[in-house]
Amino acid sequence: MLPYQRFYPISDDFRSPYARDRDRVIHSGSFRRLEYKTQVFLNSQGDFFRTRLTHSIEVSQIARSIASHLGLEESLAESIALSHDLGHTPFGHIGGDTLDECLKERGFTSGFEHNFQSFRVVTKLEQRYKSFLGLNLTYATLEGIIKHSYPYNKSFLPDEIRESFALDTHPSIEAMIVDRADEIAYISHDIDDGVASGLINFDSLKSSELIQIILQKVYDEGIYEDEDEMFRYRFSSHLINHLVYSLLEYSRDKIDNSHVLASIIPANEPIAIGFEPQLESQIKKLKKLLYQKLYQHKNIMRKMFAGRQAIIGLFNALMEEPKMLPRYYLEQCDRRNPHRVISDYIASMSDRYAMELYNELYGRS
Questions:
Q1: Quick check: 156 pLDDT over 50?
Q2: What is the C-alpha separation between 191 and 184, in angstroms, rounded?
Q3: pLDDT mean over 84-103
């Protein structure tokens, strides 16, 4: 199948195929619900912290800029970026990990995996058309959602996925760009949110060589930590620019931008998008530092523990009494495996709704 083709017929349109993908994703219910799903801080913790929605928009902006500069399909990168988190559960990664455990403990060995869930959202769970399930996105967009940068050959994938998406190949260069744009976005905004929340400060991160480089760029502008909001803004801007320009410099001569390379690049070939080795090492060390200082902070761990208990409680309650499901999901239990219907329902929830329902079912306030 050609990268711009779809699995179901579609009427002519003035937009490019990938721009049409982007618009379908933006208008989907799953995309809107990202507004109330956790990035690091729960949505209820403040109006200024990133959510899955703001993160997806930031990833899209970075990916679009990189793709445009490299002469690649800008709208394809954008559609993959806006779709890449659609399968995330409430409460961030801990929510997905917990749902995976709940399924496997009950014997459902395929469990839960958010990349594949994002793919399922756009191919099955979103229902906007009479004649087919899903959003009928192009092949290249679907491939980018399911693979990110690397071949994605999981044991639980159905045969039709294996046959259609050449799982022993890399995805398109545009998908590789989204993967690194995702990394750039979450590193920069997690630092910004972490400092804004008071859980970390720049002094606690100065053991990172990369942080020192970026701080010096801000100091060179005559801006210092006492100018809190401006300092954080300039720091994030310099960090993103430093990483984007470094990525462009390292990757520019390694790519083929003559056409979209969906399911073409063999898995044994190196990924064409990345950073020079010294910077890769700096990024790896910074991510480890953020894990220790921010993601494992007691305030974050308490919220994540609460989210984990909510997922466990909701799954057990709905498995015990499926009649508590909304009618739309309850009707599906007659046609699909109930455990997967319940998993899809929980995965679709916002943090706020999941906690409210958990408290209602277990009599907590």
A1: yes
A2: 11
A3: 94
